[in-house]
Amino acid sequence: MNLQLDSIQNDLQTIYRKLEMTDDLCLERIKSEYLGRQDNVCTLMQLFEKHNTDIQEQVGVSVSVATLQKYNVCKKHFAAFLNEKYKRCDIRLSELTFTVIHDFDIYLRTTAGQNPNTATKTMKTFKTITILGRKMGALNHDPFINHHFHLEPVNRGFLTDEEIMKIANKDFGINRLELVRDVFIFSCFTGLAYIDVSNLTPDNIVTLDDKQWIMTKRQKTSVETNVLLLDIPKRIITKYGHKTYRDGKLLPVLTNQKINAYLKEIADLCGIKKNLIFHLARHREFCKHQIINRLNCL
């Protein structure tokens, strides 16, 4: 028994001395080394790769494609930052200090051209990567301990009754603009976000007591949502209901990037000076009942 204990002690001391030289010394790492569990993650880009691979495997189950894309973009930015700032393609986890965190934040706001809020969101995404490293025992310190996140308040504005009317009644004569306008107006009258509109299928339309409802779950919050269908969204559904769309979707929703690009064209054609993006469909100042009977273009 004593010989076995002496052997264990010698092994632990050997591991301790080895890790002491690499600055990766912590109890979890010693335990992993002793038990033979090595994740082969000792650099930041390796940690990124493991995290993003794990996320990719969950896409379509519990994770959206947009979430995977967010982490891949963060990885791409950090790789570009390492090359720009340190002329390196990777760093050891033990080298990930507050200074590196601070420099990356500055890089995002300057060289990468991100606005303050976007940079803050990217840094929060990056912190998620480091949290995984700490849980794995591969990162034995918190490089974000002195970093503070701050989001600037944003006034996205809103659309007035008159502006909604201009968009809804405009005869664009261009199919892609007509489609984008219809999807935008649909969101105005349902209050659903872009991703929730694009996820709708005919199965989400339910009739109860002779009234039609949209019954769905918001992707961002997983909250069940029931929306009474008014005449305008009903007519939009009918307008596009004669075709079958990708993956059996209710409406032929384009990508968010394309929709926002086309909304800028719509704003120009309608004489609207505001930055018209899809999110504004949920920021509006008009009474639904006042304009239901005035919309005659759909």
UniProtKB/TrEMBL annotation:
An individual GO BP term: DNA integration
MF-aspect GO terms: DNA binding
Domain Phage integrase SAM-like per the UniProt entry, residue ranges: 43-146
UniProt keyword annotations, A-Z: DNA recombination, DNA-binding
Protein's UniProt name: Site-specific recombinase XerD
SUPFAM superfamilies reported in the protein's UniProt record: DNA breaking-rejoining enzymes
Species in which this protein is naturally found: Segatella oris
Stored Pfam families: Phage_int_SAM_5
UniProt KW NAD keyword: no
InterPro entries: DNA_brk_join_enz, Integrase-like_cat_sf, Integrase_recombinase_N, SAM-like_dom
Statement: the UniProt record of this protein carries the keyword DNA-binding: yes
